[in-house]
């Protein structure tokens, strides 16, 4: 059985969504914005072959030192430009990174790198703009208070972007256009999840990065 990691914060709180989306099958996984490697190490402990990529060199170094014997390839780089082979991953995961890149560019790149039938599982942040969003914010503040009374909130050194540039509604619309059929859910703690399985025709040609114009 995997040894649990006892660290907690708003991002780690939703790692189980990623784990469930990938299921028991062992997969070749790309972790976009891997940071200090908490999720990457969790997935490696479950038997996945993980590649983690992040622009923040200090975070990647911490990820390497956190579990140097784990079967994980950590890369300091930009997922949009790194020369990954298209269709080379069975699953692509990302937590609290898509808003750094932009939903459209990130989802298009994910669609390019996933093999047909591959799974994308994302936990992201977005901006609150509607009355419904504000209700989630209040509930999220209460939830945070309850959690932090029981355990400390683990902080990372990674750069932060706040507030996120896109609203929850904007992220949902972009996902519906680029990753049709994706399951989008709003959560507490200022997060959403998006789970999508790529089919042969699931990325409209006009949305592919290398499509002819």
Write the layout of secondary structure elements.
Layout lengths: L14 H8 L5 E5 L5 H8 L3 E6 L2 H10 L5 E5 L12 E7 L2 H4 L1 H11 E12 L5 H20 L17 H11 L4 E5 L3 E7 L16
Parallel strand pairs: 1-2, 1-4, 2-3, 4-5
Antiparallel strand pairs: 5-7, 6-7
Would you kindly provide a written description of the structure presented here, covering whatever features stand out?
With 213 residues, this protein is α/β, with parallel strands linked by helices. The chain has a single domain, classed as Vaccinia Virus protein VP39 (Rossmann fold, 3-Layer(aba) Sandwich), CATH 3.40.50.150. The protein is built from seven helices and seven strands; from the N terminus they run H-E-H-E-H-E-E-H-H-E-H-H-E-E. It has helices spanning 15-22, 38-45, 57-66, 98-101, 103-113, 131-150, 168-178; strands at residues 28-32, 49-54, 72-76, 89-95, 114-125, 183-187, 191-197. The chain has a seven-stranded mixed beta sheet with strand order 3-2-1-4-5-7-6, sandwiched between helices. Helix 2 (38-45) links the parallel strand 1 (28-32) and strand 2. Helix 5 packs parallel to helix 7. It is globular and about 40 Å long. Residues 204-213 have low confidence and may be disordered.
Low-confidence stretches: 204-213
CATH class: Alpha Beta
Strand content of the residues, in percent? Answer: 15-25%
Number of strands: 7
Q: Summarize the biggest pleated sheet.
A: 7 strands, mixed
Class by alpha and beta content:
alpha/beta
Number of domains: 1
Number of helices: 7
* End-to-end gap: 50 Å
State Rg. Answer: 17 Å
H/E element sequence: HEHEHEEHHEHHEE
């Amino acid at each position: 059985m995997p040894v649990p990691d006892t660290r907690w914060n708003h991002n780690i709180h939703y790692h189980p969504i990623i784990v469930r989306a990938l299921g028991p099958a062992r997969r070749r996984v790309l972790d976009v914005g891997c940071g200090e490697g908490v999720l990457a190490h969790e997935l490696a402990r479950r038997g996945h072959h993980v590649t983690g990529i992040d622009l923040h060199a200090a975070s990647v170094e911490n990820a390497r030192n956190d579990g140097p014997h784990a079967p994980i390839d950590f890369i300091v780089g930009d997922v949009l430009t790194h020369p990954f082979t298209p269709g080379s991953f069975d699953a692509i995961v990302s937590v609290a990174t898509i808003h750094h890149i932009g939903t459209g560019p990130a989802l298009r790149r994910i669609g390019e790198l996933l093999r047909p039938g591959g799974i994308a599982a994302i936990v992201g942040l977005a901006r609150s703009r509607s009355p419904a969003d504000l209700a989630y914010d209040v509930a999220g503040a209460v939830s945070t208070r309850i959690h932090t009374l029981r355990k400390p909130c683990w902080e990372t050194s990674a750069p932060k972007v706040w507030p996120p540039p896109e609203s929850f509604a904007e992220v949902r619309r972009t996902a519906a256009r680029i990753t049709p059929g994706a399951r989008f859910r709003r959560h507490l703690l200022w997060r959403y999840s998006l789970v999508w399985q790529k089919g042969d025709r699931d990325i409209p040609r006009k949305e592919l990065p290398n499509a002819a114009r």
